[in-house]
């Protein structure tokens, strides 16, 4: 951020009076510009023994496989966001979806929420942001070609929980440690 | 938003190519400015049969009682945000906290997350944003003087769940219906 979105003058980064964090502050109109984490919402769509994955048509990680997911928009609930993304990326509809995985990713200021549910029908197809959408059995999952760490962790947890048919909401922190490759 | 935060030129609201939502777009430097929901994180701090409430020293709802909570910051997890807010507003520390209530509030673009945990000690006090902090038994709760709908709903659910000592993560949508008074 370089300019104030309210008055167009330059902003400076500093800790405002009474605050504990550095903010972009406009010294012209006094607006304090807060920046906060964003929610990524998506779905783990299940059909019998198979799960639905999308191959990304866009960067980052174009060509890699993902669960349908994307940034939550203003004016919707987390569940609505997850279902909308699943429709946009996989033209798929779910039924009886429930929150399943919540990931904190503080190094990229994101909170992921994946809902688990059954595919309502097999009438799915690649949306504009997908090259391909298909169902995978566990032994077919392209583990080395998954787009993001959250995807593999969700799938692995699901295949474990599926054995006992119990799917509690699970919360995981994915922390960036210096020296690791960031994704 | 009136000006581009990257180049300082005026922005216009329109649906960018390939998008489905209206955004503030800069026709000078082509930046698309996305706006997304924010997470409010807080704690339901328990001590025996009592719960901790703070009386707000700031607007909105100055003078009304709340659970300690506030906007999640970049660089932290939801749990860290909840514990930080509890420290800032009530100088209280928790132990064994777990996610308890998640509220979607799409009409104000917020997602609330309350963690439930035991007070680590009784060494709490009003932080800068609180007039007063104290413990309440169920029959003492100032139901008509609670700051926000999320607070009353969390407390009511807790007193129900406490009877059976089972605290599943609960998800609620609070939807604004035209004709209601907004808070």
Automatic annotation (TrEMBL), chains A, B:
The keyword rRNA-binding appears for this protein: no
Domain Nudix hydrolase positions: 36-159
Q: Which UniProt keywords apply?
A: Hydrolase, Magnesium
* Molecular function terms from GO: hydrolase activity
> SUPFAM superfamilies annotated for this entry?
Nudix
Q: Which domain of life is it from?
A: Bacteria
Query: Which coenzyme or cofactor does it need?
Result: Mg(2+)
Name of the featured protein: NUDIX hydrolase
Annotated organism of origin: Halopseudomonas oceani
């Amino acid at each position: 951020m370089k300019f104030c979105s309210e008055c167009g003058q330059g902003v400076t980064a500093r800790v405002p009076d009474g605050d504990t964090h550095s903010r972009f502050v406009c010294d012209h109109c006094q607006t304090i510009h807060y920046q906060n984490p964003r929610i990524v919402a998506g779905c783990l769509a299940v059909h019998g023994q198979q799960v639905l994955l999308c191959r990304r048509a866009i960067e980052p990680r174009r060509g890699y496989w993902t669960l349908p997911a994307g940034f939550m928009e203003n004016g919707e609930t987390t569940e609505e966001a997850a279902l909308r993304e699943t429709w946009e990326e996989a033209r798929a509809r779910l039924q009886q979806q429930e929150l399943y995985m919540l990931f904190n990713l503080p190094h990229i200021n994101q909170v992921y929420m994946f809902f688990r549910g059954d595919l309502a029908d097999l009438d799915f197809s690649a949306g504009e942001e997908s090259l391909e959408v298909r169902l995978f059995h566990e032994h077919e999952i392209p583990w080395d070609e998954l787009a993001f760490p959250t995807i593999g962790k969700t799938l692995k947890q699901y295949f474990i929980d599926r054995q006992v048919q119990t799917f509690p909401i699970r919360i995981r922190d994915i922390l960036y440690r210096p020296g690791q490759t960031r994704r």
